[in-house]
Every structure is written in C-alpha cells, then in structure tokens.
Amino acid sequence: MGQEPRSKLKLMVVDDEPDNLDLLYRTFRRDYEVIKVESAIEALEILDQRGEMAIIISDQRMPEMLGTEFLSRTVDRFPDTIRIVLTGYTDVEDLVEAINSGKVFKYITKPWNPDQLKALVEQASDTYRAVKHRTQELRRALRRESLFNTVTTAIRESLDYGSMLQTIAATLGQTFEANRLVLYPIEGDRFLPEAFAFSQGNQDVEVISGSVIWEAEADPAIQRVLKTSQIQVAQMPGTDLPARLLVPLVYPQECLAVLVLERSSTQPGWLQEDMDLIEGVAEQAALAISQAKLYQRTQNQAEQMRAELAVARQIQGNLLRQSWPELDGMKVQACCYPAREVGGDFFEVYAHPQGDIWLAVGDVSGKGVPAALFMASAISVLRRELSQEMPPEPHVVMQNLNRSLSEDLISTNCFITMVLA
Asked: What value, to the nearest 5°, has the Cα angle with vertex 376 and ends 370 and 380?
C-alpha cells in the first residue's frame, strides 16, 4: 500500500516588493499553501486570524519594521514556526544576533539562487514536521503521565471496594470527557447487581441496578469484550454513530469490570490516542479494584473472626464459675480478664456434696484460641474428677489431669501450670 499524501504546509512570504512576492509564490505554490503579504503589520494581523504557519520567509529591509523584528514578535505565540530571512550583504550583523537568539532558522542573500532557496525551504519543512511530531509525542507523554497521576492519586484515597468503583467511574468520566460512563462490576462470569454511572454535569456518581444490568448482560458489544478481553468501539444503540468505547478491566487474567464510555454526536469520536491512554489507565484501575476486593475480603474475614472470637469469649466466660457456694466463715470471689479475646487462665471453686471445698487456679502457656481450648479441656476433666461420689486425693486428681491432657499438650508444645487444693 502506498503512503497517503501529506497535507500542504502553510508558507507565509512577506516582502514589500510585489515582484519578489510573485516570484516566491510561483516557486512554492505547487508544494505549499502560500500566503503572500506585503508588510509586516499585515502579516501579524493574518497570523492573528489564521494561526500558526509552518514556515515564514520575510524580507529584512521593509518600511514599517525590519524582518528580524517582525519574526521576533512571532516567537512566543508560534515557537514551532521555522523562520527564514531574505537579506542583502549589509544586514549580516542584525542577522547574526537574530540567529544566535534562536529567532531565525537560516538566512539567504539576495539575489537568491532558486535551487538553493528550494533546498533550504525543504529542509525547513522537514525540521518543522520533526518538531511538531516531537512536540505531539511530548504532549501525549505528558498527558499520559498527568492522567496516570490523577487516577493513581484518586484511587489511593479509596480502599473500600464500593468507594473505589465510584472513584474510578468519576475520575475516568471527567478525564476523558465522556458524556456518560457506566462501570459494570463483574464477579466470576456474572454481573453484580449494582453498577456505577457518571454523567457530565452531575458531580455525584449514580448507583444503578435492575433493568440496566439486564440490558448490559444482553448487550452484544459487552459480550464481545468479555469474550476477547479487548477494548472495543461500538455504535450507540439505535444509531450508526461509533460513539461507545468499551474497556475491560482485567487483572491478572480475570475480568473484574467493564467500562462503557459514551460521547454525544456533538463530541469528537474516539481517537487511537484516547484508546491507548484508556487502555493504560485500565490496567491501573484493574489493579486497584483487585486490591480493593482483597482488602474488602480481608476486612470481612477479620470482622467474621472478631464476631466468632466474641462468641468464644462469652462461651469461655460461661465455662468459669458464675455463682459461689454459701460457706460458713468465709467468702469466695474470683474473676478472669483475658489479655486477648480469649485466653488460657482459669479458676474453679467446687463444693462437693460431702462438704469438701475444692479450689483450683490454672494457666495454660501461650495466649489466644489454642490456650482457650486447653483451658476448656482442663476444666472439663477437673470437674469430672471432682464430681465423683468419693473424689480422689488432690495429687491423684492432678495425675489424672496430666494423663488425660499430656499427649495433646506435648504435641503442641504447651503446658499447664495449676494449683489444686
């Protein structure tokens, strides 16, 4: 395939001599869009109206102002323009200053050689195209970096899964000037019951559900995105306008959500530059969603663990004696406060029907759930021993406790310190 012809660059020629203007026009009209101007003042007015020129060729000696002065006035507004001066030999000092200050690209002396001037203008046009290409690349890189920073900053402010999805919808909708953006979260191979919609002019992200989700599940374009995990451009429903951009958020190989960005018929279509940027940002957004889901899962597990431990604490508290026997000449009081939700400390006050009062204080090594389990076992075995019709002597009770629990204690590298009387 042949390359598409490049569009003509704008070439402005400024000279107060009509013959020179006509000659320059005839020389370059085939390859450039030539704008002829007879004075520097008029040239500045045309620049105000028509904007940047690729190349300006100006005569140095003109009645209203020097060519170098005229060209210097264009530098701040049109820094990429290539400037060439036509001059006589007597103007070299002014030209050297202009060239050294970067305001003039080259100069050519009168009378000029047509081939030499053509070669110089061709060099200037190549330089202009290279400068514009580099400027565009730098702008794209700057926009990409700025966008990544904006998205990353917004994402870092949200850890909650729902807040994260709303932040991504709002940030990307604003950044890419979408008329409407909808983010559909996905779990496994199914859509979650709620999606998040951003619309221009509405600061708040709307939570949507019901028929909107059902329609998305049946949308052929969304199904293609889920099947291919590739960005897609699709028509708006009921029109032939390719104004919808569908972006999968995939991490690492799981589709976590689908973004649908829509633009109105009055907005420009989706450029490849837009799609490249969105695709890069989608990777960051997918990573953030994955981390938010992990954080939510961790929080849910922690909350479940706290609830279970609260129940375990209550159960352990109920294992300890809640009421005390009425004893002549003495009063018994005891309490236990675990260092964590549950622990291994315990006590027992047992009044035997025969009249004996048994007191025990024990501590399982370690803390937390393992110690609590051994504590429950120790109390259970102790009460079984003491509830016999004729309880054995204290040292025999301790021997029986040791025999019942020693194997499990040794296998877990634990022990119990206990006093029984």
From this structure: 150
Q: What would the mean pLDDT of 84-97 be, rounded to a whole number?
A: 71
**Contact residues for 113 (Cβ-Cβ < 8 A; gap 6+):** none
Question: Contact 334/317 with Cβ under 8 angstroms?
Answer: no
**Separation in Å, CA 182 to CA 165, 205, 246:** 10, 9, 10
Amino acid at 162: G
Q: What does the alpha-carbon distance between residue 50 and residue 48 come to, in Å, rounded to a whole number?
A: 6
Biggest CA pair distance of the chain: 136
Strands 244-250 and 180-187: unpaired
H, E, C per residue of the chain: CCCCCCCCEEEEEECCCHHHHHHHHHHHCCCEEEEEECCHHHHHHHHHHHCCCCEEEEECCCCCCCHHHHHHCCCCCCCCCEEEEEECHHHHHHHHHHHHCCCCCEEEECCCCHHHHHHHHHHHHHHHHHHHHHHHHHHHHHHHHHHHHHHHHHHHCCCCHHHHHHHHHHHHHHHCCCCEEEEEEEECCEECCEEEEEECCCCCCEEEECHHHHHHHHCHHHHHHHHHCCCEEECCCCCCCCCEEEEEEECCCCEEEEEEEECCCCCCCCCHHHHHHHHHHHHHHHHHHHHHHHHHHHHHHHHHHHHHHHHHHHHHHHHCCCCCCCECCECCCCCCCCCCCCCCEEEEEEECCCCCEEEEEEEECCCHHHHHHHHHHHHHHHHHHHCCCCCCCHHHHHHHHHHHHHHHHHHCCCCEEEEEC
- Cis (ω within 30 of 0) for the bond into 220? no
Among 232, 198, 199, 193, residue whose Cα is nearest residue 213 = 193
372 and 343 in contact (C-beta within 8 Å)? yes
Q: Give the model's confidence band at 211: pLDDT under 50 very low, under 70 low, under 90 confident, else very high.
A: confident
Strand partners, 85: 58, 107
Asked if 301 and 318 count as a contact pair (C-beta separation under 8 A), the reply is no
Q: Which of 10-14, 350-354, 356-360 is predicted least confidently?
A: 350-354
Q: How many CB atoms lie within 10 A of CB 229?
A: 12
Please answer whether residues 100 and 78 qualify as being in contact, where contact means their C-beta atoms are separated by less than 8 angstroms: no
What's this model's pTM, rounded to 2 decimal places? 0.57
β pairing state of 9-14 and 55-59:
parallel
For the chain, the average pLDDT equals 84
